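Let's do one together. I've listed all components of the complex below, 721 residues spread over three lines.
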Amino acid sequence: MTVVFQRPVTLSEKGTHYCPGCTYGIIHRMIAQAIDELGVAGRTVGVASVGCTVLAYDYLECDFLQASHGRAPAVATGIKRVRPDAIVFTLQGDGDLAAIGMAEIVHAAARGENFTVFFLNNTIYGMTGGQMAPTTLVGQKSTTTPGGRQAARAGRPIRVSEMLATLDGPAYIERVAVDRPANALKAMKAIRKALKLQVDGVGFSLVECLSACPTNWGLTPGEALQRVGRELIPYYPLGVYKDVTAKAGPDEDQTPNGGDRP
Amino acid sequence: MNAEKVLMKGNEAIAEAALRAGCRFYAGYPITPQNEIPEYMSANIFDAGGQFIQAESEVAAINMVFGAAAAGARAMTTSSSPGISLKQEGISYLAGAELPAVIINMVRGGPGLGGIQPAQSDYFQATKGGGHGDYHLLVFAGESVQEMVDLVGLAFQKADEYRSPVLLLGDAVLGQIMEPVALPEPVREEEMPPKPWATVGTGGKRSKNVITSLRLHPELLEEHNLKLMEKWRRMQANEQRSVSYRLEDASLALVAYGSAARICRRAVDLARQEGIQAGLLRPVSLWPFPERAFRETADRVDAFLVVELSLGQMVEDVRLATNCVKPVSFFGRTGGVVPTPAEVLDEIRKADPGTGAAPGVQSTRPGGCCR
Amino acid sequence: MIGRVVFDRERCKGCEICVLVCPRKIIALDQERNEHGYRPAMITDEEKCTGCAICAQMCPDCVIQVFRETGAAAAGRSKEDAKGELHA
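Okay, and this is what the predicted structure of the assembly comes out as:
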């Protein structure tokens, strides 16, 4: 009997507080899996932010800090500058990163700080009950845009990956999604690549992961995943936006944990 | 202590003192009148094996200090009044997460953008919270470049000892003047306490360290606050510091800190020449307020005259500490205006218990039980 | 190849993502609820499981462990035996 899939060692036993169908859990597991594969758990320091990831330090077995809202890239900068051998990552939602934390993420990226940002974009404020986020789509309902976001009143959503890719500082920026198995495999690849680049000292990496928030979207988990594909991906296209390591030919294909391709 | 003295500008001496105290991470943002500190750090900390970042804002800077402190480094940020306002959330987080750090405020006139001249109008911000939540900072204030240099070393030491942020109050005068200063010997690695709680990676050898100020269960948060309160109690018991000048036979005790104290010292000498028995009680720790010294002094003098570069903030703590057993009057200039010794002498004459005259400028803040 | 899956009933939040993504459509929610009040996912016909692990990889709560029987050992094994063996 071979093991095809089991819980990564770096993922804690403790169950998460995330809602049923919240894709944060998938991303946590992928990060834990990548840490296990790279063998860096003993060197890793995670930075949880304010939002649904606030309790992330209970879900991953590595040293962890809890940063104030929006400031995780600054906190991570402090850690990495003092301990350059540590593998440092942040977990940030769209409010944390793209609203209050916009200055910190832009400048950490511009400085090319050698840590990894996992940007969990679910187009809404989850923890606080469903308010508009900088990435909420026009027409999308939220508790602070009850009739649907109007561009005239609330502006238009921000495409973070594209924006940061205009900077010379970052080394690797990719947008992924976990709405269906094929995309989830690419997400795993991106997460692994981002952490590997940090291990190799290449520079700043950011993986923007389009996520579902069934509770605040008012959808079932299945419907929420479908919304990611139907509404989010067209506005936030998946793909690599910056890669200083990109070669002319196709990347080496890495299939995680065996498993049939769908 | 290195006996040789060097003529140095206050801000630069403070930066050099921090390096010698083992500071290996500095993050700051330009703001007058403290810019020489980040500039000096940018020129010198890398050679010392440290890191300097000019952060995108004072908010980012305090959070970088949070990260660096969590990773075990002696970390510092400096700013001036408006920038210190921006740091308040970060300072509250440092206190709640029990991280050592040094923050220096070279105070300027406020409120708002205010002015760039010296002031002492951030006393409330420094000692009565500033940030949210039940916490206290150790707050020290020096009156000379030498004393600020000495207090920087003390600040790093106490920050590590208590696992708590320490605030130094200076002002534009202290930052900009040049005075002879004896610089301390650099602190050696072995002299610094180990930090087993730091988040540096488990190394596979221990369970994970989690540094957080979040405790969602009220009972746990209360328990944490009570644990922190023990720290504040130890600070109150052990860290009260003050210096007296010609107080032994004084009938009128002036009370001032920082640059105001320098002016008051001169005014005391002038008053003595006129036969007024004036003296000076100068707090060096603003939190904990040196209550013991004030209670003891209140028994011996007939009145207090508090002099601040503000509308009157420390005067309230003088009244609290002395329980108003003797009259406490106030004189202040604000907005960056610095009074002369002659002006203070004028107030001394008015406040002199010998003549029984009424004091001059009153504190505009309500409350207080005496003149 | 034959797949074997183990569902951690108490960890499951009944989100049904695994139900939706299973290519063989052999996962469903149990009628009986777990301690947290959720109806946990369970396999309905393990003989059809190929061990593709798509369910496990899409599960937000890491509820599912997936194994594959290999070679001759696959023949004639009972379900109970399969669940007990955890050799890598």
